[in-house]
Specification:
Layout (H helix, E strand, L loop, with lengths): L18 E5 L8 E8 L2 E6 L12 E6 L2 E10 L7 E14 L3 E7 L23 E5 L3 E6 L4 H6 L4 E7 L4 E5 L13 E8 L1 E6 L4 E3 L4 E8 L4 E8 L2 E6 L8 E5 L5 E11 L5 E3 L4 E5 L3 E4 L7 E7 L5 E9 L3 E11 L5 E2 L4 E3 L4 E8 L5 E11 L2 E14 L3 E2 L5 E3 L9 E10 L5 E10 L6 E11 L4 E9 L3 E9 L18 E8 L2 E6 L3 E6 L5 E7 L6 E6 L9 E3 L12 H9 L8 H5 E2 L2 E2 L2 E6 L2 E10 L7 E7 L18 E6 L4 E3 L2 E3 L1 E6 L13 E6 L2
Parallel strand pairs: 14-21, 23-30
Antiparallel strand pairs: 1-2, 2-12, 3-5, 4-5, 4-11, 5-10, 6-9, 6-11, 6-12, 7-8, 7-10, 13-15, 15-18, 16-17, 16-19, 19-20, 19-21, 22-24, 24-28, 25-27, 25-29, 26-28, 29-30, 31-33, 32-33, 33-36, 34-35, 34-37, 37-38, 39-52, 40-41, 42-49, 42-53, 43-48, 44-45, 46-47, 47-48, 48-49, 50-51
Length: 701
């Protein structure tokens, strides 16, 4: 039962209007039907007993109780959805409570210039004739058919429409409002049935590729008759327009002389239902094939320009270009490979339809090798390049020598030793070489001295040979150059594929020092004049024995030996080492006597040697090889002091004696033995007459 019906100010939050699209699938060439639910923009009721009061409160009523008339009002925004056709409409409300079964009537409002916040009994715009009546007999959902009113108002472009549910007899129904005042969640809504205008592209299919240049574009429309025009959109611009549209009937556009290339097309239509509505269906791709191609034979077969000897005539070859349509800006370009070696005479030009043009390719013979390049053939009307591979071969010998193939018959020779130098010579090219010249040099080939004479031979492609040259060594580091096909600076007399590998060198070191190592064993004997032994014994331990080395032309007096760098009274004479270097011509070497035995102007080290019972102090020493196990000292013979200055000098050229102490069975640089001693290689040249040998002396202790 309804009692004390009154109006109160609105205190419920407004719900925002929303549209829920429930789209249905559309069949090809048939309308797309869609159901939309539109929730009320405004809903309220008015009360004749409170004529100036806005009653948009927590509940909504319609009917009559006593002398009070109650009316439920609904207003909807019709601005959306634009471009659709409304085929049917129904207002659904939820009856929360009612006093009895009655027929309620729905009337269109005569005006819509109101809102739920300002509508009163006294300012309401009134109502029109009934649209629909509904016998409401229970609580729950009830619908009110608006098909005879709403679609017409929608189509004519009304912004709003409003409806009233009322009853003239004594009965009251309470209705859930959009603020959900009763808490049912069943707020009123408008159910619209609509048709969506569609344009369907029929043919040609998407991604069509063809050599044809004329096309018929087919499409179909579905509408209630308000599509005013359709245009063919070709490459993004309107090309042709049709203003006579027949619904559900195939329409066409015809286009001729389509420019070759990649294109897009679509059909764009305009519908004038409510507003101008642009209908854009899918965009399709269309490729018109126009081409230029390599012929005689096709690009599938590479063009081989052949082979030729380096520096001979340029290799040439031809291939034709064919155009199946009128072509502009036909371009031949090298896109990969040896583009700097293989070229063409083609310049960008236009071609007429079905024209054949000959293209010349060139391969100069200035550089040896096998060359290949890819040439693309394109035009403004041909988006797909036709690629031709062109190749050629330039033959040439390639003479070479490298340092790893330069060898010496002795890798550690001594001064004045005769050794053989052997060099491997290669022809890594693709052509035979005749009259190949090889030269050997001591020092750089531009500034050094040639060793021996030229050697000449033939060398076929891919083969190799060895050449040998005899050389007598001299002290020092020597770069031994081998040159093939000289002179290097003018690339010789044989044209080669690579002129940069025609020389190489290897360094050989001829040391200033000669190193002697060995064992010292002794058998002492006293014999008669006829070599009969009187007394004989063996020496098994020779430790501390001394080994001496001197120029064979010297005659040292061992009791007169003095330490080099000391005079006969024991005073220091700093110039002895340099004077001895001068005497044997070794001053310029990095391992001279002076640099080997001194440091900062003084002997690098000294020891005392007892020679035949006589102690000699301050004897300058240096390691014989690489350790202190064996050392070498230097002595001079004071008995040769012919100018009586009591010191060694290069004028008197006193005998020089190198000495080492026996250190039995010790490890040295070259193994285990009793002694190591270093001797200048030129000691044999120190005195004359020049026997070019040295003599060893042993004092066994």
């Amino acid at each position: 039962m309804f009692h004390n019906i009154h109006c109160s100010p609105k205190n419920a939050a407004m719900l925002l209007a929303a549209i829920l699209f429930l789209a249905m699938a559309a069949a090809q060439a048939s309308a797309l039907i869609q159901t939309d639910i539109v929730y009320g923009m405004d809903d309220t009721y008015i009360n004749s007993s409170a004529a100036d009061t806005n009653c948009d409160g927590q509940s909504m009523f319609t009917g009559k109780t006593g002398r009070t008339t109650l009316e439920a009002w609904f207003r909807f925004n019709m601005s959306s959805p634009s471009g659709y056709y409304v085929l049917g409409a129904a207002l659904w409300t939820y009856a929360y409570d009612l006093t009895g079964s009655r027929t309620f009537f729905l009337h269109p409002a005569l005006g819509t210039d109101w809102t739920e916040n300002n509508l009163t009994w006294n300012n309401n715009p009134g109502n029109d004739l009934s649209v629909y009546s509904q016998q409401v007999s229970s609580t729950g959902w009830w619908s009110w058919d608006l098909a005879s009113d709403y679609p017409a108002k929608f189509s004519q472009g009304d912004a709003f429409t409003a409806y009233i549910i009322r009853l003239g007899t004594s009965e009251v129904m309470s209705i859930e409002d959009k603020e959900n005042a009763y808490g049912t969640g069943n707020v009123p809504y408008l159910n619209l049935t609509m048709m969506i205008p569609e344009v369907y592209i029929l043919s040609p299919p998407d991604d069509t590729s063809t050599y044809n240049t004329s096309f018929t574009f087919q499409y179909n429309t579905t509408d209630a008759g308000n599509i005013v025009n359709c245009s063919l959109m070709f490459d993004g611009a309107a090309n042709k327009t049709n203003t006579s549209i027949v619904e559900n009937s195939t329409s066409t556009f015809t286009l001729s002389n389509v420019f070759p290339g990649a294109h897009t097309w679509a059909v764009q239509c305009y519908d004038v239902n409510r507003y101008i509505y642009e209908i854009n269906p899918e965009t399709r791709d269309l490729t018109v094939l126009a081409y230029v191609e390599w012929t005689n034979p096709s690009s599938a077969t590479r063009l081989d320009l052949g082979s030729a000897l380096i520096n001979s005539a340029t290799l040439t070859g031809t291939r034709q270009i064919y155009a199946n349509n009128s072509q502009t800006n036909v371009l031949v370009s090298c896109v990969s490979g040896d583009c700097s070696r293989i070229t063409t005479n083609w310049t960008t030009r236009a071609m007429t339809c079905a024209e054949n043009v000959t293209v010349l390719f060139r391969c100069p013979t200035t550089v040896a090798g096998s060359f290949e390049a890819d040439f693309e053939l394109t035009s403004d009307q041909d988006a797909t390049a036709d690629t031709l591979t062109v190749n050629c071969t330039i033959l040439a010998p390639d003479l070479s020598v490298n340092s790893t193939n330069i060898t010496f018959s002795d890798d550690t020779p001594t001064e004045s030793q005769e050794i053989d130098i052997t060099a491997g010579i290669y022809n890594d090219g693709t052509y035979d070489a005749t009259g190949v010249v090889v030269r050997f040099y001591k020092g750089h080939y531009l500034t050094g001295t040639q060793i021996g004479s030229d050697q000449t031979f033939d060398l076929s492609a891919g083969s190799s040979t060895t050449v040998m040259q005899n050389w007598t060594t001299s002290i020092g580091d020597h770069d031994i150059y081998v040159v093939v096909d000289p002179p290097v600076d003018t690339n010789g007399s044989i044209a080669e594929g690579n002129e940069s590998n025609n020389y190489a060198y290897r360094t050989v070191n001829i040391p200033m020092w000669t190193y002697f190592v060995g064992n010292v064993t002794g058998t002492l004997a006293l014999q008669t004049a006829d070599n009969r032994s009187v007394l004989k014994w063996s020496v098994t331990d020779t430790t501390d024995s001394l080994l001496y080395v001197a120029d064979t032309d010297s005659n040292p007096e061992f009791n007169s030996l003095v330490a080099l760098s000391r005079n006969t009274t024991g005073g220091y004479t700093s110039d002895d080492f340099t004077e001895f270097d001068t005497s044997i011509n070794t001053t310029a070497y990095a391992d001279s006597v002076n640099l080997t035995f001194t440091a900062s102007g003084n002997p690098a080290g000294t020891e005392t040697f007892t020679v035949f019972g006589h102690a000699i102090y301050d004897v300058p020493i240096a390691e014989s090889t690489n350790s202190s196990t064996f050392v070498t000292g230097i002595l001079w013979d004071s008995s040769d002091d012919t100018n009586n200055n009591h010191q060694f000098d290069s004028t008197a050229k006193e005998d020089i004696v190198f000495v080492t102490r026996v250190n039995q069975s010790k490890a040295g640089m070259y193994g285990t033995y009793d002694y190591e001693i270093r001797v200048p290689a030129r000691l044999k040249n120190y005195k004359g007459p020049d026997s070019l040998t040295v003599t060893f002396y042993t004092e066994i202790k």
